[in-house]
Amino acid sequence: MAAVVVWSLALFLILYENMSTTGIHVFLDMLAEFGVDRIFGNPGSTELPLNDALVSDDRFRYILGLQEIPVMAMADGYSMASGKLSVVNVHICPGLGNAMGMLYNAYREGTPILVTAGQQDRRLAFSEPILGGEMVAVTQPWTKWSVEVNRIEDLPNALRRAAQVALTPPTGPVFLSLPVDLQMECAESLKVTPISIPNPLIRPPLDTVTAAAEMILAAQNPLIIAGSRVTDRGANDALVKLAETIGVAVVSEPGTTHGRCPFPSDHFLYGQGLPLWAPDIHKRLEAHDLIIVTGMDLFRLYTYFEPDLAVPQHLRVIHIDEDPVQLGKNFPVDIGIWGHTKVSLEEVTRELSSRMTNELETVFRRRADSLASQHNEVRARLRQEIDQQRGARPMTPLCVMDSIARVLPDNAAIVEEAVTTTNTTIERLGALKNTTGYFGHRGWGLGWGLNVAIGTQMAWPDRPVVGIIGDGAALYGIQGLWSAAKYNTPVSFVICNNAQYHILKIGAQGMQLPSAGQQQFNGLDLVEPEIDFVSLAQSLGVEAHKITEPDQLSEQLTEAINSEKPVLLDVDVSRELGNKLNYGE
User: Among candidates 40, 24, 34, 57, which has minimal Cα distance to 149?
Assistant: First the structure.
């Protein structure tokens, strides 16, 4: 097999050294050789060479979105689920502007997306042509690398470098600006080096692993705080092994950045999630003497509250991350372990196991038993709270989520952008039976969830995907329903409809704004007229139903999950103003 690969790469090089080809064909050939088989896009005049080339190129499937928000978010979901490089093509400056909110999300997530846009013809550069403008400077803050390619001889290296930068941890989006005349330009002899990605499984220094093991074994009440990068790097089993070895609870990062499930929510050591705000985080952590942080930034908060010291000063901190910038960035750490997340967790666990004694095993087992008892008590209280609300109409957020949780298949994927309704209830109920199948906001640019669900379903055609989306958030990217219908992507969309920007009302009250304190708001209600999501979905080709009852939601969602086409459920949710977001106890 190795000989075949070497021969094919050599042939790939020889062909371009002895034939004439255009820039856009070089671009497509390199992507195809790397395994890319689809391009998400919304075309314009400066992208037409790509769309024209794709007419006769059956190696790719072009996924059309009606606006750049759906295009970017579909690619985001596809990349997060598949672990592969996604390729996006948007239209020059205005189209790129539409995409920027979703590019911000991808940057915050670390999603490896190659974003491309056509640039105006280079011969028009000094005449300030319509649509043309500076795109590299615009994208630089939210990409790992951004460049405009102005020589066809540089295109192969630019594309190779872009893919490598995007996929090398810490992963993230990249941007290439491609002038339209460069896409059509012919090169008589062009040497092309195929895209290749170096092995990212970097081991941490042994001395830091040894020091971390000693500190963990000496701690009286340690806690593990884990984030999305655990799942992104396939390190979930390694984290479970570490937690079980020392009998320590694992809590998820705060909801402001909680994008993936790092730890099984039905595991007896699952400690739910951290609160959102610094004073509440501080209160949650103050009983511990050591935190082991992995797969996340420590911390990226959303709203300023005093006191603003999220990490109590007495806490010792061990932070494991593949990005050295994150180690000690916001809070001092006692030990920073720089290495690949999965490998580092395995190395620490191996060192701990080598130092384990019968006495320590007994201590850790008793600690784990106590945590398991606490885990069951917390879940029982949540169940009791749900039962007390079951008769309320419209349904409360807890009852909506319970109705969904009751019918979720074990391999289901959840994409959520309805933060005040979802409230991590599915995880707190232990209803999500896998760690890979959860995608939550990490950038908070709206319009994301509905379209990430579509991209996730495209990456996982054999897994049921449920998008739980707030009514306000859905409207930022509702055009994605057309793409779901066009490509027969069987996502089950649950629109949590409370006819308001609920989280903004909660935020206004948290900021102690005077009118908000009297529950008076301006510009935060989606009424007069209210949105008819059933008719809206049907106009875009998606079957839709209005839902008002818990059992009706469970039954219709079961039918939708078993359907072979997209289905939208418009669910009435209580409009009563909540006063908190409860991500754990």
Answer: 24
Residue range(s) of every CATH 3.40.50.1220 domain in the chain: 206-374
pLDDT tens profile 128-157 = 999 999 999 999 999 999 999 999 999 999
Give the strand order in the sheet containing 145-148: 61-64, 38-41, 86-90, 113-119, 174-179, 145-148
Q: Is residue 462 over pLDDT 80? A: yes
197 Cα distance to chain centroid: 22
| pLDDT at residue 584, rounded to an integer | 56
Residue limits of CATH 3.40.50.970 in the chain: 2-187, 392-572
The confidence band for 371, taking pLDDT boundaries of 50, 70 and 90, is: very high
Q: Strand, helix or coil at 319?
A: strand
Residues 6+ apart with CB under 8 A from 257: 108, 227, 228, 296, 297, 299, 300, 442
Residue 537: per-residue pLDDT: 98
Q: Report whether pLDDT(229) > 50.
A: yes
- Cα separation, 578 vs 585, whole angstroms: 17
Asked if residues 170 and 322 have their Cβ atoms less than 8 Å apart, the reply is yes
3-state helix, strand, coil in the chain (%, to 5): 45, 15, 40
Check pLDDT > 70 for residue 12: no
Rounded Cα distance, 271 and 368, in Å? 11
Pairing of strands 567-572, 492-497: parallel
CATH entry, 2-187, from 3.40.50.970, 2.40.50.1070, 3.90.1150.10, 3.90.76.10: 3.40.50.970
Token look-up 């390199």 returns: 30
CA distance 306 to 279: 7
pLDDT in tens, 471-493: 999 999 999 999 999 999 999 99
pLDDT band at 188; cut points 50, 70, 90? confident
Mean pLDDT of the chain: 94
Nearest to 367 by CA among 219, 261, 584: 219
216 class by beta-carbon count within 10 Å (0-12 exposed, 13-18 middle, 19+ buried)? buried
* CA atoms within 13 A of residue 306's CA, in its CB half-sphere: 1
350-353-357 Cα angle (round to 5) = 165
The fold for domain 206-374 equals Rossmann fold (3.40.50)
> Which one is the CATH code of 392-572: 3.40.50.970, 1.20.1640.10, 3.30.160.390, 3.90.79.10?
3.40.50.970
